Amino acid sequence: MKHFYNILLLFCVLFLATSCEKGLFDPEPRSSCLEIRQVEENGSAIEKTYDGNRITRYQFYSDQTPLNYYEFVYGEDGHINEIKYLDATGNPNAPSEFITYDDAGNWVKSTVTHSNGDVTTYAATYDSEGQVQEITSSTNKAGTVVENYKATYTWENGNNIRRTYATPTQQTEVQYEFDLDRENKRRRQQRKISFLSLAVAHNKNMFRRITTTSATTGAATTVAVSNYTYEYDEYGYPTSAIRSTAVNAEAPVSYSVSYQYDCD
């Protein structure tokens, strides 16, 4: 299994005006790439395990020590129908999430039954292009339904440019800006592990800036601005990213993350 690709730099020696045509020495396109690892500079890491092209595990690490992980269970139709959240020894760390799909294959509802009998439901609606429009979370507590949050999404040219997130005590708006010249080649391989990760995991382009404005009842408004820079391999896949975040115009704090792939 190959994780990285390197190519020898080639130069046109003869007939420079005619031989160095665009594409002459371009690398062969990758037929399929799966992201298998993310490593942050603080030692935290995520490893993804696959069965063929289907993700089966999403494992968290701290300085190479295994932590909790998600395990994905597939039905006969090929869809994930259960997500298990387990501790490092394989014991349940939280109740499973069970998923329901519509006829178009959209993930429209998930349910989690807690040990005390409460049932939390996540429900989503989509537009005609299959882009999520609204997500709601509610919990049925002994017959009384309590809304946990509602998230709404705005899309433009295949990118989620705005998300609003509302709870009874907090309102958050997230504005996303993109590098429109950089295709998000990771998006095809990303898999959501919760409704809130669904929208931003499948943007057409790479993030450039994210601005988050949060207003909590009885507290001051907080504004966080994160800027992203990337390094790419010769195939256009990001191999590393630096996120620099400033909260309320304070000095920014940066951290880096690297990505590794397995390619055919």
Report the mean per-residue pLDDT as an integer.
84
> How many H/I helices?
2
Number of domains: 1
Q: What is the string of SSEs from the N terminus onward? A: HEEEEEEEEEEEEHEEEE
Biggest sheet, open or closed, and with what strands and sense? 16 strands, antiparallel, barrel
Low-pLDDT residue spans: 1-27
Which strands sit side by side, in order, in the main sheet?
1-2-3-4-5-6-7-8-9-10-11-12-13-14-15-16
Residues in β-strands, percent:
over 45%
Please write the CATH class name: Mainly Beta
Oligomer description? single chain
Give me the secondary-structure topology.
Blueprint: H1 16-19, E1 33-40, E2 44-51, E3 54-62, E4 65-74, E5 80-86, E6 92-101, E7 107-113, E8 119-126, E9 132-141, E10 144-156, E11 159-166, E12 170-183, H2 195-198, E13 205-216, E14 222-232, E15 238-247, E16 253-263
Antiparallel strand pairs: 1-2, 1-16, 2-3, 3-4, 4-5, 5-6, 6-7, 7-8, 8-9, 9-10, 10-11, 11-12, 12-13, 13-14, 14-15, 15-16
Explain this structure to me?
- The chain has one domain (31-263): Porin, CATH 2.40.160.
- It has helices at 16-19, 195-198; strands at residues 33-40, 44-51, 54-62, 65-74, 80-86, 92-101, 107-113, 119-126, 132-141, 144-156, 159-166, 170-183, 205-216, 222-232, 238-247, 253-263.
- With 264 residues, it is mainly beta.
- 3% of the residues lie in helices and 59% in strands.
- It is globular and about 55 Å long.
- Strands 1-2-3-4-5-6-7-8-9-10-11-12-13-14-15-16 form a 16-stranded antiparallel β-barrel.
